[in-house]
């Protein structure tokens, strides 16, 4: 899975340009069969978190961690190895970082 | 673990470790299994060879034992076998098997510590105990580092093959950085050998030699190999019989290995002919300047200052500026050099060589009290016994 980490401050480039690049990127890797699923998420300001572990679950406004960055979307990919995933992540046109994590397979 | 066995075992392990691991990785498609079983075969060899003698074909022996272990394990764990049947490793793309393994072990997705430990164990055939003793860390720490790294290689899908051509230079730089660190760790250690017949610096040199065989037109690989050979040529003269460090200035140059210096010079020439300069070639050029000088006094200091300038431009670092200051001392005098060294104090506060360099300069300028406190400062910053001994002697500090 590729997790797209976004800076919560909007960047320099106009959002419409960035989205166009994202569409091109997504199209390219969907066509090649690398992307098997994924979504773009609404901003972290719209998040609600349920905290478990206390005596009762508590519901709080906001993301699970208050940081400068948050997950802005994700893609489930099917690639032969980490290098292929790295090549995809390096060419991702938006956001500040991409985290790559293998999915648990049993 | 005691490793009192016949000499040559280290060479055999080094020669065979990568081969056996690579062949098992291919056969069973699982790096973790391959590595575990190769290591088990080595442990068995360490146990039985000293008693029964080294087999005529040690590589085949190790291969057979490792394969048997792997098959046993697969039989025991059918579920694991089904998983391994998936062959997660893509087919190889040329080059020596062992170099491909090195690219796997030095993948940028692994931490530097893990890269170093894994390369030593998997490609150079060191045991976990030997790696632990080389880096002065507990054996359990090394074992855990290796286990974690192997898990990650399998679960994250770090491939076992040559990198794509577009990635080759960046990935090669990663491998060379690991080998450079390995060499320095071995070269600077007061104990040259980690066991009877292994030295980290020699293992690193062997690994970079292997890399140069597969990639003969990579200038930085040749540069690094030349650098290591220049350093190894001087190794005999680096310690006194009492085990204290002998500085370059005071070394008996007749003990330098002239054949090794010639070999290193040829390598550096070959690298230069490729016209792709880089930091390792520059460091080798600096080492060659010292290796070819008849004495400390007749060293070509102005050229050294220029080489350090180029190195600094390519790879800015306060340590390089400190070395440049030492060269500058011989070109422009202690006053100028001290001025440079003082400017580095904020950045290199915790680096003992900054303080010992300042101490030498202050001593020459007759500022004895300042020199003494600089020596004392240097002494608090290193644990290496040979270096501590040297600082005490030079600074006239009492030994305790």
Explain the overall architecture.
The complex is a heterodimer of chains A (106) and B (400). Chain A is of the alpha+beta class and 106 residues long. Chain A has one domain (2-100): Dimeric alpha+beta barrel (Alpha-Beta Plaits), CATH 3.30.70. Chain A is 25% helix and 31% strand. Chain A is built from two helices and six strands; from the N terminus they run βαββββαβ. Chain A has helices at 15-31, 82-90, and strands spanning 2-7, 35-40, 48-51, 58-61, 69-77, 97-100. In chain A, the strands form two sheets. Chain A has a four-stranded antiparallel beta sheet with strand order 2-5-1-6, covered by helices on one side. In chain A, a hairpin with a 6-residue loop joins strand 3 and strand 4. The longest helix of chain A is centred in the first third of the chain and has 17 residues, at 15-31. The two termini of chain A are 16 Å apart. Chain B is mainly α. Chain B has a domain at 312-400: Serine Threonine Protein Phosphatase 5, Tetratricopeptide repeat. Chain B contains 20 helices and no strands. Chain B has helices at 9-28, 31-52, 58-76, 78-84, 97-105, 112-123, 128-135, 139-156, 168-188, 200-214, 219-233, 258-273, 279-292, 301-314, 318-332, 334-343, 345-348, 352-364, 368-380, 385-395. The longest helix of chain B has 22 residues, at 31-52. The two termini of chain B are 31 Å apart. The chains are: A alpha+beta (106), B mainly alpha (400). Chains A and B meet through helix 2 of A and loops of B.
CATH architecture of chain A: 2-Layer Sandwich
Largest sheet of chain B: none
What integer value in Å does the Rg of chain A equal?
16 Å
In one word, what is the shape of chain B?
elongated
Total DSSP helices of chain A: 2
Distance between the termini of chain A: 16 Å
The total strand number of chain A stands at 6
- The CATH class of chain A turns out to be Alpha Beta
The H/E string of chain A reads EHEEEEHE
- CATH top level class name of the domain at 312-400 in chain B: Mainly Alpha
Extract low-pLDDT stretches of chain B. 1-6, 86-94
- Largest interface, by Cβ-Cβ below 8 angstroms: which chains and how many residues each? A-B, 10 and 12 residues
| Binned strand content of chain A | 25-35%
The largest beta-sheet of chain A arranges its strands as 2-5-1-6
| Secondary-structure element series of chain B | HHHHHHHHHHHHHHHHHHHH
User: Which structural class best describes the helix and strand composition of chain B?
Assistant: mainly alpha
Instruction: Provide the CATH superfamily of chain A.
Output: Dimeric alpha+beta barrel
Number of helices of chain B: 20
What general form of chain A does the structure show? globular
Runs of chain A in which pLDDT lies below 50 for 5 or more consecutive residues are: none
